[in-house]
Amino acid sequence: MERNSSAVIICLSDAEQLWVLDSVPGKVSTDNSDGEVEKVLKTLQSLPSSIPSRSWLVNHMVELGFSKSLSEWIGTNIKKSGELETWAFNLDGVIQMFGSYRDTSYWSLLEHPPKGMEIGLVVAENSDRWEPDVLHRIESLAARESDESQGAFSLHVLPHSGHWVHVDNPKGLLDIVAPRIASISA
User: Which SUPFAM superfamilies does the record cross-reference, listed alphabetically (predicted)?
Assistant: First the structure.
């Protein structure tokens, strides 16, 4: 899938804030991943389109070796459809978005945030996704002086969390983003 980064910036032009959760800003090589996300997506693809129940899904995912907390979070993504449960999202669309994320670099957006926009990047303390040179580049961007001709960029480290930040430390994530979101002018 080819991606036009200027289209993404146009879509974001009215946004006051953008939060990026433990996502590397450059193109992501499969060499720099433990394959966990791919394993989750492949597993979800292998499941029947109708799930017997939320508890069945959670137990099945745990039996396949996924953590209880991740399996429970996955279980929150199904909805009742008649007697069965189905995905509350388009799984093929999620897979396409993940592929697009892997193939797209958004360094230029972090280096030059649109005027009036605040970009917050949350890096999980225990994430395995970050190479030292990438972290150094991000820390340098966060440390630079603000420039009134463009937006702002900030870096936040989420303690006690791996890549699944909303699962591993939801309270810590809320503590980081809630005050900033509350500051948005109405």
Answer: alpha/beta-Hydrolases
Residue-range domain boundaries for the chain: 5-26+106-182, 36-94
State residue 30's pLDDT score: 66
**In the prediction, which pLDDT does 90 show?**
92
> Are 130 and 137 within 8 A, CB to CB?
no
Q: What is the three-class DSSP state of 160?
A: coil
CB 164 within 8 A of CB 70: yes
Instruction: Indicate the helix (H) or strand (E) that contains 158.
Output: strand 152-158
Q: Which regions of 12-130 does DSSP assign to beta strands (E)?
A: 17-21, 78-81, 84-87, 118-124
> What does pTM read for this prediction?
0.73
The residues with which 81 forms a beta bridge, in sequence order, are 84
Instruction: Determine the topology of domain 5-26+106-182 in CATH.
Output: Rossmann fold (3.40.50)
Sheet-wide strand order for 152-158? 17-21, 118-124, 152-158
Looking up tokens 């996704």 gives: 129
